[in-house]
Structures are given as structure tokens and as C-alpha cells.
Amino acid sequence: MLDNNQLLRFTTAGSVDDGKSTLIGRLLYDSKSIFEDQLEAIENTSKKKGHDGVDLALFTDGLRDEREQGITIDVAYRYFTTPKRKFIIADTPGHIQYTRNMVTGASTANVATILIDARHGVIEQTKRHAFIASLLQIPHIIVCVNKMDLVDFSEDVFNNIVSEFEEVSSKMLVKDVRFIPMSALLGDNVVNKSENMPWYQGAPMLHTLETMHISSDINKVDARFPVQTVIRPQREGFIDYRGYAGRMASGILRKGDEVTVMPSGFTSKIQSITLHDKELDEAYAPMSVSITLEDDIDISRGDMIVRSNNKPEASQDIEVMLCWLNNSPARPRAKYTIKHTSNDQKAMIKEVVYKYDINTLERNSEDSDLAMNDIAKVKIRTTKPLMVDSYRDNRTTGSIILVDDATNETVAAGMIV
Amino acid sequence: MSKYYLNYLDELESEAIFVLREVWAQFDNPVILFSGGKDSILVTHLAKKAFYPAKIPFPLMHVDTGHNFPETIEFRDNIINELGAQLIVGSVQESIDEGRVAEEKGKNATRNALQITTLLDAIEANKIDCAIGGGRRDEEKARAKERFFSHRDDFGQWDPKNQRPELWNIFNGKHFEGEHFRAFPISNWTEMDVWNYIKRENIAIPSLYFAHEREVVWRQDSWIPNSEFLVLEDHEEVVTKKIRFRTLGDITITGGVESDADSLEKIAAEVAGMRNTERGNRSDDKRSESAMEDRKRQGYF
After folding, report:
1. CB contact under 8 A, B277 and A107
2. What is the mean pLDDT of residues B76-104?
3. Residue B141 sits in the same domain as residue B16
4. Is 60 exceeded by the pLDDT of residue B286?
């Protein structure tokens, strides 16, 4: 692989019926990312189950319960590499009762792939998947119109689905949408270009994934450096060393930059940026580095170093699009631990502004109960200010989770409005 | 510098360093589980980078089955010296002597499963609240479901169906007394990524990974090293072959592959052309389709 090869994370949402597992199996198989012992195991299982040939869907088998039930329950991560890129697939279930798993898989993705069965066109599930992709602000969407072999590879069918989807997505905040007609079962337009659909001028799926421009997806304007921990070696040669360790959330910081430490508001200049024993001139997202400042300031975990002329908002009252993840519903006015970058505070859900009906995507301001898989706009009050950006501008400083202190479980995930 | 994006190895490195710093910040008494294999060596190397110029802040914990390759132990002791780190050893032999576990019987007997008890005892005795491991999601289907921060109940058990959701890079390590976490900083690395990175950083690894002459026996489709623990079957024959190991576990269960790869460059090239998964040579994973899932539920690495 070349030195400048990037990592691309994409999510697949869908159910077995859409051919999702077959699509992933096809991608891995045709890109030669499957080992012989894996192939043998799948061939044996295929025979046992009485399938003709190799059932590619079996590659995505997971835990024992999932194998028995033939479904994806949890997010499963899969990996493959081509000469152009390394790929991480977050393979998520597609049914409504697993909305929380789809949200989890979508949270780190560069690209969302949405599967549509060409025979059925845009259905409720498609809308839900598009909605989640827009809610989580996944920068790119690939709509895979699958099973084209079952509609005679018809261009009209494809074009109709494209317009149906565009009508739905016009009401959502999605930036870059591409459509690919394919047959995962036969391999058309997955890795290899389809000979059955000469009318399709675009690239197959893999080529699209390999060449898609993703380096502009990260916010490079707002420099945000949440401090994870302070490094104080107290050994010879480094007696006075005080390094702030963290990962750039967004933007660029350079040696000599005027910076402000939030929430204290103290200002200083960047003295050095290092990664291990290597001094750097600048750091940008998502680099993990250590930063030293020219002045001795009291800084600890949870603080944020930002450029003095571009600060996030420090606020105790935030509005959040919240996805409830836990079996136990939210308790009215209960207190939770809110985790935001490296900062932990106590928080209370003050008000449910409205809730989405996940099927119709309509807002309902009458119903204020939050149960598993619900998505709602809420108002949250924290005990101390958080340094926040809107999720639309910044996926790292714009996201939070809620932890229930009674169980320590992660009960909700939120995107700051 | 004109480009503002990381290549895939730099991004994986940055992610792992982030996870290691989160472990340090969120737990009171974390350790690195150190087996002497390439993955735990990699994690140790990343921890060194994450906290430089401070010393690596985690003790290394080794679960010693007594069925070691001597080369692994020598390597372990060298790295401890070099880092100035603390070593904690949990001994399977002691667990046997104390009657905590019973040795398996028969020709394919191993101490693999016995490690679970020793590991959990050592975690409890040393009041460890987070054990950092070199597990990777590409290794095995149960591991594909692991979180970066993975909860274990007060019996040390993993409940794969009831895991905490993990979104963005916000990790929740909150736990009650007696419970602990496993953390997996290199979750997203593949075998190929590990080798490419070891080559790039020129990280020292045990000589066992390089091709060398060794006495071996052909068993279960791989070359099992001859050792004092090996019980030969009548039809089996000890031969000398030039082999290397793709993974390192106990000497009793780790099979080698025939190879001429005697440098990091050659190993990386060989791995790139491999047509079988690396754990295909581990008889501990061949016992059943869910062998790893079953062991992990009980508290395995």
C-alpha cells in the first residue's frame, strides 16, 4: 500500500432481505479479502444448508445467537484493503427495533450505504436509514439499488427509484448522494462493472468508495483540542515538562499560535507540539499529540485548548437531538452523567421539545416519554458549562452521551443542535 | 506540509494512542496484558509513544501457563528492563498447585482454558480495574463484536448481547467495585496493518516470528514445535523444518508455517500473500465454531 492511502469507514444498514449480507460478502469476495479457510468453512455450511454454490451472506455470520436466528443484532466491524484504501465496514441491522445500533454504527462513518430492493423501491425502512444518515451527518451517501436482475436490469425502474429517493431526501440535510444500480448476487456493479446495464455510466461501488474525496469532511477551520490528561514526567531532562495530551477534534494548531484555555479563559502561546520524540510544526484532526504552552497555567482533563480568535460556546443549557439507547426509559427530571469530549458533568433532561415518529418522520410534541430507539429534541441543563459547537459544524465537540449513575450504562447519545 | 489528512497507519496509531490515554484518565489501576506476542508488543510500543517523555504508566501483566517458548520469556524480561516497567505475573502452575483449576487430560490437553482462572485471580488480587489487551476485531467473529472499552461483571464475565453502545470516540469506563474493563486500543487493526506498522517503526519482536530451523511434528494441519510437553502419537514423526510462527501462544498449541521469511520486509510480503487466517494455526480456536465466544464469555483475553 502507498504511504498516502487513507482509511474510509462506511456503514451498511439493511436487513437480510435487502441482500445486505450478500453485498458485503460480494465486496470481500471479489476484492479477494477472504481467506481460503474462511471460504472452505462457508462452502461446507452452504452445502449443509442445501444452497447451490457458495452463499456469500454467510461471511457476515457473528455470535452464536445471530447465526441461529440468521440476523445481525449488534454492530459488527469488518475490514478489507485494496491497493487504494483501507476500509472499515460497520455492519448494522436494519429493523426499527435496532435503530440504536444503526445510530452507533453511523456515528463514526464517512459514508453511509443504503440498500434498496429494486422490486420494492423506496419503503419506510429506506426513509429511516436516510434519516439516520442525515441525523448523524454522515458526509456521503451511496444508495445501492440492488436486485436489478429481478427487474430485468431496467433503467426506468432505476430512474424512478432515484427520483423517489430524491424527493424524500430533499427534506433532510444530506450533502452528497450517489446512486448505483447493482446485483450483489451476480456481482454487477459491486466490484466489477455490469455488462447487463450498459446504460449506467457511473462507477461500480468499490471504485466509488476508493476514489471518493473524504479529506474535506473534517472541519479544518475551528481549532479544538480537548485535553485528555497532563503528562508530567518528573525525570531528568524533563523536570519542568508539562505536556497536554489529546487528540485534535478539528481545525489546525501551529507552534506560536495564540491560544485560550477554556473554561478558565487564560491565554498563552503554543511552545511545542510533539508526537513521541518527534517535534511537529502543526497538528490537525484527528492527530493525537502533546502540546506545551509558554506559560504555566492550571490545565486539567476536561479543559479545551482553542485558538483565541475562534472559541466554542460555553453553555450550561444545550439543545440536543437525543437517541435513547437503553431498555429502561428516561426518568423525568432525573440526573445523568453527561460525557462530552474529555469532560464529565452532571446533567438533567429539562424538557422534551418533540419526538420523531420513526416511521413517518413526523414531529410529535404531545408525547414526552423517551424509550429505547426513540429520537427526540430535548433541552438539557448541566451543572457546569460545556464548551460546545453544533454537531453540524463539528461531530466531535457537538456530540454527547448520557450515563445513568444508577447502572453506569450508556443510556443515550445526542447531537447538539 | 500541504496535505491535511492522515494515512491509514497514522490514523490507526492516533486512535490507539487516544484510547490508551482514555484508559489512563478513566481508571485507577490499569495494566497491559502482555503475552510476548506481536499484538501486545505493539500495544506496549503505542503506550510508550502515548505518554512520552513520561515512562509508560502501565505495569505489564503476564499470565504464565508454564508452557512457554523460552524465547518469549527472554523477550518479556528484556522489554521490562528497557521500559523500566513493573511486571506482574499470574501463574497457571500456581493455580493448579493451589487446586483452583485441574489440568486437562489426553493428547491434545492444553492449559489454554486454565488461563481464565489465573487471569481473573490476578486481576482481583492486584485490584486491577482495566486490563488492556491486543485483541483485534479482524481476528475472529466473537472479537468482531468487541467494544474499545468492554465491560466485565464481578465474575469477570463478558455479556456480548448486553454491551454498552459505543458512539463517536466517547468511551464510558464507569463501573462498580469488583467489576473491571478490558480495553482494546488496536481493535481496528488487521494482521497486515500490524506488520506494516511494525516494519515502519522497526519494533523489536521475538525471534520466533522469523523463519528458523526447528524440530516439529505435523498435527492438525500445521507444524507443532517439539517440546518437553509434547506427547507423540505412534504415527507421528519429529522432523526439522524451516518454519516461522504467525501468532504466539503456548508452545503446545501454536503451529508454525513453513517459511523463508527472515526479515520484517519478507514477513510483511509473506503475510500479504497468505491465503489462510492467522488463527487457523491455533488449535485452541479449532475446538468448535464458537470456541472463542465461549471462552471470552467466561473472561478470556
Report:
1. no
2. 89
3. yes
4. no
A245 and A152 inside one domain: no
Query: Which one has a higher pLDDT value, B130 or A35?
Result: B130
Query: Does the CB of A293 have a partner CB in chain B at under 8 Å?
Result: no
In angstroms, the CA A320 to CA A279 distance is: 39
Flag whether residue B52 sits within 8 Å of chain A, measured between CB atoms.
Answer: yes
Give the range with max mean pLDDT: A297-311, A321-335, B147-161, B268-282.
A297-311
Are A412 and A374 in a shared domain? yes
Q: Are residues B185 and B276 in the same domain?
A: no
Statement to judge: residues A329 and A377 lie in one domain: yes
Percentage of chain B beyond pLDDT 70 is 93
Q: Looking at the 3D structure of chain B, how many domains does it have? A: 2
The answer to whether B13 faces chain A, any CB pair under 8 Å, is yes
> Which of A247, A288, A399 is the best substitution to test chain B (most B C-beta atoms within 10 A)?
A288
Taking CB atoms and an 8 Å limit, are A88 and B188 in contact across chains? yes
Domain that holds residue A236: 224-307
* B121 shares its domain with B145: yes
Q: CA distances (Å), B60 to each of A67, B13, B207, in order?
A: 36, 20, 20
**Does residue A1 fall inside a structural domain?**
no
pLDDT tens by residue, A190-236: 999 999 999 999 999 999 999 999 988 888 999 999 999 999 998 88
Interface list for A 207-236 with B (CB within 8 A):
214-215, 218, 220, 228-229, 231-235
Question: Quick one: A241 and A322 in the same domain?
Answer: no
Number of structural domains in chain A? 3
B170 and B26 housed in the same domain: yes
Q: Which residue of B has its CA nearest to A214?
A: B5
Percent of chain A whose predicted confidence (pLDDT) is above 90: 65
Over the stretch B38-60, which tens digit does the pLDDT of each residue have? Answer: 999 999 999 999 999 999 999 99
CA distance, residue A200 to nearest chain B CA (Å): 32
B149 and B259 share one domain: no
B132: part of which helix (H) or strand (E)? strand B130-132
- The residue range of the domain holding B278 is 206-283
Answer whether residue B3 is part of any domain. no
Residue A217 lies in a domain: no
Nearest CB among B49, B144, B280 relative to A78 is that of B144
Residue A410: give its domain's CATH number: 2.40.30.10
Contact B144 A107 (CB under 8 A): no
B81 in a structural domain: yes
Residues of chain B in contact with residue A210, where contact means CB-CB under 8 angstroms, are none
Q: Within this chain, do residues B188 and B226 fall inside the same structural domain, yes or no?
A: no
- Evaluate whether residue B47 is within a structural domain: yes
Within a domain: B113:
yes
User: Do B66 and B167 belong together in one domain?
Assistant: yes
Interchain contact, A235 vs B3, CB within 8 Å: no
A339-364: average pLDDT: 91
What is the interface size between A and B, counted as CB pairs within 8 Å?
Answer: 181
CATH of the domain at A58: 3.40.50.300
Residues from chain A contacting residue B166 (CB–CB below 8 Å): 104, 410
Contacts of A341 in chain B (CB under 8 A): 170
pTM score of the predicted model: 0.92
Instruction: Answer yes or no: do B4 and A229 touch at CB < 8 A.
Output: no
